[in-house]
């Protein structure tokens, strides 16, 4: 099987959520898997001098409108969360813990559950207790998950993973790297599909 | 005929150039016209705290790559200009002068000629003499154009037009407003098409 797609995202990113709803299927159509990489965009924005979309003058208001319209256009379930952006440290660490203990497929499934909780059910996944309860409902060991989210190794993995992402050029969410080729944004999924089909554009 | 699409762009914007190659045809397919609005993104970026794409860390390098790939993906002629971004004051004023003296269709044709000169032929359209020569080749009166570009009324029209654009929410290029609905970016042209077809999304 050809190399996996690297999928970088922040749990607070609406377009990252849109990507999460279809990237596994997109890759599978071309015999590929997806490696899910939760990162912290806050750290990235500090390095690039950017800011979360909702906080940028003019662009922020437009984006909130565009997100709802794009959800309708693509037929993706979406309800605007009460608070946006939120801190995603806990959700990212929980996903990395699932990945390191139960593999990438389990981590992808849990990440999708977290995204849905936030962007469809308006659950506040910046709250560690909410993340743990969602884990419990997903069949994870709640105590082990709670401990894992606090483990030094997991914290360090998220820091290092975010640094490594930036070293690879990642500056936003979603950001997908296919065979070394970078694609930023949900609106580049048509180009990703073409790349997977033809190996070039 | 239904209301015209308002098309806001800066002559230094590659994605604005991409939009310029097809927006008249897109509108015509749905019985619409396009009102072309050159603006100065520099003034907009000052207000929003943003910067020209090529100058943003990580995002700048990615964007240069994405622009070339998107041109190939969409089959649009493109050669990376030697300098980017450039000052577009003269090109914008020239277009407004053509618009005010010869109407919107002539202005659109001249704007397309300027975009092509910059993004295909690598002509430096920040140089007023280049703009005037392109005008001459397009059948415009070179002396009148040269004078028009310096006229106080045209300068004021560009200032006021850029302010008005910001008041309508414009923060980037291309930016298209259809029946009050805003669309930012060449990658929203599929949504514009859907809107023109259905009157909603």
Strand proportion of chain A, as a percent range, falls in 5-15%
Low-confidence stretches of chain A: none
End-to-end Cα distance of chain A: 21 Å
Question: Which superfamily, in CATH terms, is the homologous superfamily of chain A?
Answer: Glutaredoxin
Do you know the CATH architecture of chain A? 3-Layer(aba) Sandwich
Rg calculated over all Cα atoms of chain A: 16 Å
Q: Can you tell me the CATH topology of chain A?
A: Glutaredoxin
> How many individual helices of chain A?
10
Main sheet specs of chain A:
4 strands, mixed
Largest interface: A-B, 30 and 30 residues
Mean pLDDT of chain A: 96
* Class inferred from helices and paired strands of chain A: alpha+beta
CATH class of chain A: Alpha Beta
* Assembly type: homodimer
How would you describe what is shown here?
The structure is a homodimer of 201-residue chains. With 201 residues, chain A is an alpha+beta fold. The first copy, chain A, has one domain: Glutaredoxin (3-Layer(aba) Sandwich), CATH 3.40.30. Helix content of chain A is 56%, strand content 9%. Chain A has ten helices and four strands. Chain A has helices spanning 14-20, 23-28, 41-48, 59-74, 89-102, 104-119, 128-137, 142-150, 152-167, 189-198, and strands at 5-9, 34-38, 175-178, 181-184. In chain A, helix 5 (89-102) packs antiparallel against helix 6. The longest helix of chain A has 16 residues, at 59-74. The radius of gyration of chain A is 16 Å and the shape is globular. The model of chain A has no long low-confidence stretch (mean pLDDT 96). The A-B interface holds A 47-50, 56-59, 61-62, 65-66, 69-70, 72-73, 166, 169-172, 182, 184-185, 187-188, 190-191, 194, 201 and B 47-50, 56-59, 61-62, 65-66, 69-70, 72-73, 166, 169-172, 182, 184-185, 187-188, 190-191, 194, 201.
């Amino acid at each position: 099987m050809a190399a996996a797609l690297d999928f970088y995202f922040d749990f607070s990113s609406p377009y990252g959520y849109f990507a999460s709803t279809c990237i596994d299927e997109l890759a599978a159509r071309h015999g590929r898997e997806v490696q899910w990489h939760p990162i912290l965009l806050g750290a990235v924005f500090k390095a690039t001098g950017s800011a979360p979309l909702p906080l940028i003058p003019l662009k922020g208001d437009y984006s909130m409108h565009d997100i709802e319209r794009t959800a309708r256009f693509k037929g993706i379930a979406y309800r605007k969360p009460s608070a946006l952006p939120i801190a995603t440290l806990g959700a990212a660490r929980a996903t990395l813990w699932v990945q390191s203990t139960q593999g990438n497929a389990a981590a992808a499934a849990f990440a999708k559950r977290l995204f849905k909780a936030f962007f469809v059910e308006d659950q506040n996944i910046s709250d560690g207790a909410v993340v743990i309860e969602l884990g419990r409902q997903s069949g994870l060991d709640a105590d082990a998950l709670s401990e894992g989210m606090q483990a030094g190794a997991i914290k360090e993995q998220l820091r290092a993973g975010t640094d490594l992402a930036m070293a690879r050029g990642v500056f936003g969410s979603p950001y997908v790297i296919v065979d070394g080729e970078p694609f930023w944004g949900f609106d580049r999924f048509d180009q990703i599909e073409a790349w997977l089909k033809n190996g070039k554009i």
